[in-house]
Amino acid sequence: MSVNDRKMKVLQAIVDDYVTTNEPVGSKSLIERHNFPVSSATLRNDMAELERMGLIEKPHTSAGRIPSDRGYREYVDSLMTLDSLSDEERIEISGRIDESVGEVRDLLKNASAALSETTGYVSLVMTPKLAGSSLLQLKILMIEPGKALVVMVLSAGVVKDKVVRIPNFLTPDQLKEISDSVEKSLNGKPLDEITLVTLATSVKETRIPDSLLNQVLYETYTAIKQADRLDVYLDGEHNMLKLPDFSELSRARDLLGTLSHDGMVAGYVNEIEKESQGSDTYMIRIGQEIALEGLEDCSFITTTYKVGDSISGNIGVIGPKRMDYSKVISQIDFVRYKLNDVIKKLNS
Amino acid sequence: MSVNDRKMKVLQAIVDDYVTTNEPVGSKSLIERHNFPVSSATLRNDMAELERMGLIEKPHTSAGRIPSDRGYREYVDSLMTLDSLSDEERIEISGRIDESVGEVRDLLKNASAALSETTGYVSLVMTPKLAGSSLLQLKILMIEPGKALVVMVLSAGVVKDKVVRIPNFLTPDQLKEISDSVEKSLNGKPLDEITLVTLATSVKETRIPDSLLNQVLYETYTAIKQADRLDVYLDGEHNMLKLPDFSELSRARDLLGTLSHDGMVAGYVNEIEKESQGSDTYMIRIGQEIALEGLEDCSFITTTYKVGDSISGNIGVIGPKRMDYSKVISQIDFVRYKLNDVIKKLNS
DNA sequence: AATTAGCACTCTTACTCTTCGAGTGCCAAA
DNA sequence: TTTGGCACTCGAAGAGTAAGAGTGCTAATT
User: Fold this and answer.
1) Measured between CB atoms, which of A153, A157, A249 is closest to B247?
2) Across all strands, nucleotide nearest B63 (CA–C1')
3) Does A116 lie in the same domain as A15?
4) With 90 as the cut, is the pLDDT of residue B79 above it?
5) Are strands B135-144 and A311-320 parallel, antiparallel or unpaired?
6) Pick from A284, A331, B169, B288: CA 20 to 30 A from residue B61's CA?
7) Is the CB of residue A63 inside 7 Å of nucleic acid strand C?
């Protein structure tokens, strides 16, 4: 084993130990726990070298070493060995997700709950990004005078709807006329290409007064725009309070404060997804790499789940930097697998 | 002023001071801050008496006094003077709630956000209890072969719907036949009186094979049952970490742990609502009175908002026992007023 | 050149001791 | 019933100390 190889083994051992014990690891305990065929003095030299390389650091002069952000990065990129889930965990997760009755919302919520529970960290599940999907059907149904339901069927079988207000004296027949011509002209159009103008030009020959028509079209438009809204299901925030990493109240406060703005988190996920487009399946951000206040001591692992061919949503975990990356990744992976599976069945 | 009156004034002053300073209040500072026309020694006697009565207590021998749960109770029931909201607060809350676009879900979420933000505590908004409301309309619409949308219009104008699966080869005409007869027989029925049997007997003369029919009826049934599900919007949990009352991590952990089970909280609200049925508009639980783990140092104030005549939902705040009750109550009151208002407009 | 033993040095953590002061209870006088 | 006075209690805060884990460096060894 070359000297360089050993240094990497040392880094790996430091990460592993620190992750489990949450204590800065010193040369002596390193020897004890792992069987390096060298003395502690040699490890001290190696560690000094690793520190020069910026992979580990000391909290203070006379303490052991902890991995730096770059150290974790090296670990995640090159040193980590992926392991697989235990059967109990699979069963636990499967159970949680299978118990969702019907609604996609429940499904995603349950997936998030399952993920936060098995990891013991914060989980994140976002609704699928529908902006790119297209409109297969659109129906406007009269509920009662003045009130209608806009029902949209999107590609990949997603159904969205919204109650809208319409002029009181609009008759069901008139509404049907509008509905039919709107559907005809929008059929197959990607959601993000639909504008108020598209809608307005879609209904041409009609005896319905413009003012009435416009109100209906406007409401329909808002319904369409609202359909592709991203919802975020964060779960397990309170888990963070159990971690020694956040035993300082101020850290916990900052973290939970930021997490409570789920829009911010969602925005960030979209951002990093854009950046790392097409590269790895898993997007891992470590410590300072995360551009969110209060998450400096966290790592953020996200990936995507699929709804049909072109539509996907995000799923991920926010935990302490000091986490068992390999385990968490396999946990996310299984949840994602189950999610894909259940959604496929749901839509088939 | 009789001696007894003064004792109550003293209690009031102690609560007021303790709420603002979070320090046990002693006889001397009491004299300084309020102008009692007596000496500190007299107050000491009064305080000893109040302690004998179980209204205040000492954290330790040589400290000032803090209100006991019973002390807070006395304060809330008899001593508190209600004050009203500042204009800024009204505007702030109004803005937050008015910005909700259309969906009831958004409205309730925003109301909850507004409430947690203005109080600085945890807010709770529950969806209206629909169990008692009745079914005005029910339509089952074919979306595509094998998939249908069940749309329900309930009393008070609430619209609920759910995508359900139906047999693949069921034709739109057959579905319409089922839909029409179901609607006819269920029209006006309270939700909680509808059972699978009711449904089954509603469709009698038909040429549709039983097996197909039953699947549709069963799915419709689950859609109806799901309609009256209670959702809970808790917000501002992280606010509790800012309070000195929860600077002990373990308390904060227990509290947030319990709050994360929003089903538990919802269940508790339903329970206390049942108990205090018909009494006050506001239900206030203080400290140990709250039968939820981790909320021993909290108070829980709830009230109801209205959707139409007979339907109502719950809204409330969970904060530290040591809160400005009068202020929080007026804040809840205003949010509730706005909520009632917006909902009325939405349904009109 | 790489490894090792040894040793002086550093820095945190935990504990003890002390002091300070706010607050109390109670007594005797008004 | 109220008040001044006083001894007493107890927590909070600060200082000092000892223990221990870990380091870096030097000189010897392989």
Assistant:
1) A249
2) C23
3) no
4) yes
5) unpaired
6) B288
7) yes
- DSSP letters spanning B27-72: HHHHHHHS--SS-HHHHHHHHHHHHHTTSEE-SSTTS-BEE-HHHH
- Residues A145, A45: one domain? no
- Both tokens of residue A283? 């997007």
| Mean pLDDT, chain A, integer | 92
Q: What are the φ/ψ torsions at residue B151 (nearest 5 degrees)?
A: -110, 125
Q: Which nucleotide is nearest to A28 (CA to C1')?
A: D22
Q: Which residue has the tokens 């009565």?
A: B53
State which of A208, A226, A244 marks the end of a domain.
A226
In sequence order, which residues have a C-beta less than 8 Å from that of residue A236 and are 6 or more positions away? Answer: A112, A113, A115, A116, A117, A119, A120, A121, A122, A123, B260
The answer to whether the CB of A168 falls within 8 A of the CB of A146 is yes
> Do B294 and B257 meet the contact criterion of CB atoms below 8 Å apart?
yes
pTM over 0.85: yes
CA of A62 to C1' of D19 (A): 14
Residues B235 and B329 occupy one common structural domain: yes
Same domain? For A26 and A158 the reply is: no
**Are B256 and A238 a contacting pair at CB < 8 A?**
yes
Total domains in chain A come to 3
Same domain, B242 and B341: yes
- B187 in contact with chain A, both atoms CB, cutoff 8 A: no
Structural domain including B184 reads 135-226
Residue B41 CA to nucleotide C29 C1', Å? Answer: 14
- In chain A, what is the greatest distance between 2 CA atoms, to the nearest angstrom? 92
**Residues A221, A238 within the same domain:** no
Predicted local distance difference test score (pLDDT) of residue A278: 62
Nearest CA in chain A to B165: A346
Q: What is the CATH number of the domain that holds A201?
A: 3.30.390.10
Q: Which of B164, B195, B226 is a domain's end point?
A: B226
In angstroms, the CA A276 to CA A135 distance is 28
Same domain assignment for residues B17 and B96: no
Contact (CB<8Å) A238/B259 = yes
State how far Cα B91 lies from the chain centre.
22
Q: What is the mean pLDDT of residues A197-215?
A: 84
Q: Tell me, what CATH number does B26's domain have?
A: 1.10.10.10
**Residue B280 CB coordination number (10 Å):** 9
Distance between CA B59 and CA B65 in Å, rounded?
A: 7
Adjacent-strand bridge partners of A307:
A311
- The reply to whether B103 touches chain A by the CB within 8 Å rule is yes
Same domain as B235, residue B274? yes
Q: Of A151-160, A271-280, B166-175, B317-326, which range is least confident?
A: A271-280
Q: Which helix (H) or strand (E) holds A42?
A: helix A40-52
What is the distance in angstroms measured between the alpha-carbon CA of A73 and the sugar C1' of D26? 35
